[in-house]
Design goal:
Layout: E1 7-8, E2 14-15, H1 17-31, H2 36-60, H3 63-69, H4 73-93, H5 104-115, H6 121-129, H7 134-159, H8 169-199, H9 201-226, H10 234-261, H11 266-276, H12 281-291, H13 296-299, H14 301-321, H15 328-336, H16 344-347
Antiparallel strand pairs: 1-2
């Protein structure tokens, strides 16, 4: 099994190269933000990049695997409950941090973070590294993303109200056209393009990462041009990081020990923990740009920070889980060659 290469600074805290690229993109947007016509070009390119990203998601997902995964409905309902019930409740509780720890704008972004669907790619990669139930992680992440395309805007309209920049049928239509339609197109064309994507998965992994970096650059450029970042003081930023660390710790503990109380085995608990405790930057950024409008750059700051935090923490957890004694069921599946193991070096991007 191939392992994701990480930079150890120190050895117990791996720094993913993609995280460094994200940080570098934010710095670039701060120093050289896109303005005027360049901003229009960057915005159009990022919209197209996200559509391409979701097309590739759909083309990579095996329909047979997804249908087979429906048999494990208890696991998927558990992940969905964590993503769209427990997370939002914790997000609402963060209202008590205003104005002492978070500003109203940062709290709105924190709540939006809690409404975003789970990741697909990083959930699969970390589940694979930890020797968990990979097909379940594929299906759980996919179901969460599909559900989130419709449920996240509706929850944002209900819980954020006017803070989220308003909500309309036009906003929902834009999200569906940008995310759901490309995904369904990828599913439809999978039989013709699936082989090509499999042969060029490393190159397409760079496309995945580049798409997210482009969206991040566009959002943060808009924030720099609008002068929004002057509202975030070091103290507020520290408070936001502390709140997100608590949020992540609570969800990691709840998904692991809660899944055990529900009677799930080790492999399923690993899939539940990684799929139920994380949030998708790829899905959240385009949704935020529609829901928050001109304030999207500040609204996605909590999601950006949480994304980086979850990758670093889950990389440590997955590495430790990989050293657990290998379950007999995992050895049997590996011998049979029935579990496709994705390349974590390519898939930790969402």
């Amino acid at each position: 099994m191939s392992r994701r290469r990480t930079l150890a600074l120190p050895s117990w805290l791996p720094v993913d190269a993609y995280i460094l690229a994200l940080i570098g993109t934010v710095v670039l947007a701060a120093l050289l933000p896109a303005r005027g016509a360049a901003a229009d070009v960057a915005g159009g390119a990022s919209t197209g990049a996200v559509a391409l990203l979701f097309f590739l998601y759909g083309a990579r997902l095996s329909t047979a695997e997804a249908l087979d995964g429906l048999k494990h409905w208890r696991l998927h309902l558990t992940v969905l409950a964590c993503t769209f019930l427990i997370f939002p409740l914790l997000g609402l509780a963060s209202g008590g941090l205003v104005p002492y720890v978070l500003t109203p704008e940062l709290q709105a972004g924190f709540l939006f973070l809690c409404l975003v669907p789970s990741t697909i790619q990083s959930s699969i990669a970390f589940t694979s590294i930890a020797r968990g139930n990979v097909p379940a992680a594929i299906c759980a992440g996919s179901f969460s993303s599909l559900t989130g395309i419709l449920l996240t805007p509706l929850l944002a309209a209900l819980l954020l109200g006017s803070t989220g920049g308003g909500f309309s049928a036009d906003s929902l239509l834009k999200i569906v056209l940008q995310l759901l339609v490309p995904f369904l197109a990828g599913q439809f064309l999978r039989r013709w393009v699936g082989g090509f994507l499999t042969r060029h998965k490393k190159v397409l992994g760079l496309v995945d990462r580049g798409s997210i970096l482009l969206v991040v650059y566009t959002a943060f450029s808009e924030g720099m041009v609008a002068g929004i970042w002057h509202q975030v003081t070091p103290a507020r930023l520290g408070g936001l990081l502390a709140a997100e660390a608590v949020l992540l710790a609570v969800m990691l503990a709840l998904t692991w020990y809660g899944a055990r109380r529900l009677g799930f085995g080790r492999e399923d608990r690993i899939a539940i923990q990684f799929a139920g405790s994380k949030k998708s930057l790829a899905a959240g950024l385009p949704m935020a740009s529609v829901l928050f409008g001109a304030h999207a750059s500040l609204a996605v700051l909590p999601l950006m920070l949480f994304h980086q935090m979850q990758l670093m923490v889950c990389a440590v957890i997955a590495k430790r889980r990989s050293r657990d004694p290998e379950p007999e069921s995992a050895r049997n599946r590996e011998d049979a060659g029935s579990v496709p193991v994705p390349d974590p070096a390519v898939t930790v991007t969402s």
